[in-house]
Amino acid sequence: MTTIPIQVDPVDQLLEVGLKDLWYPICPSSLIKERPVSLRRLGRKLAFWRDHAGKLHALEDRCPHRGAPLSQGVILGDRLSCPYHGVEVRCDGVVTKVPGSPGCKLEGSHATRFFHVEEKAGAVWLYNSKNDVETPPPLVLPEQLTNEDEYSHFLCYAEWKGDYRYVLDNVMDPMHGTFLHKQSHSMAEGDSKAKFGIRATDTGFVFEKEGQRNVNFDWTEWADTGLHWMRLEIPYPKTGGPGGNFIIVGSYTPISPTLSCAFHWRVRKLPKGWERDTWRFLYKNRLEARHWHVLEQDRVLIENMELDANQHEQLYQHDLGIVRLRRHMRNLAQQQIEAATQTA
Prior knowledge:
Elements lengths: L9 H8 L5 E6 L8 E5 L2 E7 L5 E5 L13 E3 L2 E3 L6 E3 L4 E3 L16 E2 L1 E4 L2 E5 L15 H4 L4 E10 L3 H8 L3 H6 L15 E5 L3 E6 L9 E6 L3 E7 L11 E11 L2 E11 L4 H30 L16 H24 L1
Helix pairs in contact: 1-6
Keywords: 2Fe-2S, Dioxygenase, Iron, Iron-sulfur, Metal-binding, Oxidoreductase
Protein name: Aromatic ring-hydroxylating dioxygenase subunit alpha
GO molecular function, one term: dioxygenase activity
């Protein structure tokens, strides 16, 4: 009997679970309340909880004693008490108490991975460090999510049955809006033929239609500010209310090879006042349902693609942005693998 070895691509393995040393959105802030929450993200099972002051903490959801889920335990301020044998693990990963065997070598050891977390723009963000770090780099979000004087936004969160990289491809493909979303109230305009170009920015690049702007879904920006995010604008009819173009900021996180988190912030540029209030009222009462419908079209298509669809592609000029992004992501993964090898 001949055994055929299976070749595993380490670059693909790393990309599948998410690059290291980056911030990722994990879930809406409202998901984590008075009890610990267990979430699978970025190739790990993670336990999130709030201490008595409401501050958020995150540990790998595995007790260092026997591997039981810490998320099933009791919150003791900045510690979780494992439900299996009462082992207490602090938010920095240090075991502070072993009730069944006081003074054993497990006490005082740094035995559990911990992760830095922050809450911004209505979401929980986690720094996916390859090793524990005392101080993470700052979480730098795009202006549309931080400048509350000029912008207003709503967070739209969904989980899609598909590799998060297919979601990235979808957003980096402005041309699909002309066809898949052609019945949308904001995507019915523009030429169904186009030529695209790539323009570098300080933090990434813009993939855009040549000779067409503010007509349809005409461009996508990809950026790296210590987290990876994407941005696009859709021209709005006057019936969409004040605020100019409808802005969408997206960031995407792997749960597993067949499940991903999709975060979309829907944004309008409006100062505080009656115009902002009008748009927010209009959005919740009329526009939100329409945008969910558009997202559903994307979701259904992606969830019905074969897992290996990208191995059977025949790309053309409209796909230059996808090719650029994939190549860049692979280069980043390769650099991280080489750096890990050198320090091993």
